[in-house]
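My current task is to audit a protein record that another person submitted. Thanks in advance; the entry in question is below:
***
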Amino acid sequence: MTVIKSEEEWRAVLSKEQFRIIRQKGTEAAGTGEYNHHTAQGTYNCAGCNAPLYKSTTKFDSGCGWPAFFDGIPGAIKRNEDRSFGMLRTEIVCANCGGHLGHVFKGEAITRKFDTNERHCVNSVSLKFDDKE
């Protein structure tokens, strides 16, 4: 089920910081996110709509300053071309509500050990952790 809300509805259910990042494609400061060094077992859900996005078994310490995952739950994440700031990147969003998660990077030295060869660099603010698997 796809979640569709007006800007006013999103503002009513998200904090100011969540709205800035999830709906306006912002970025939290590196090293400040609550899930950057989080190691508990469970599922990381979308903070906007609670859709499951990542299993803790795909999280790794990349040293980038944001939570990093090498793969998402199948069908949970959509990719968009992002040409902001004069560069080409791949934005990742929640497939259920379109909420901005961060960006995905491919082919880095740190990701070659994973079958996906990817690092999903995700804002902690875009996530909500559930310790039930």
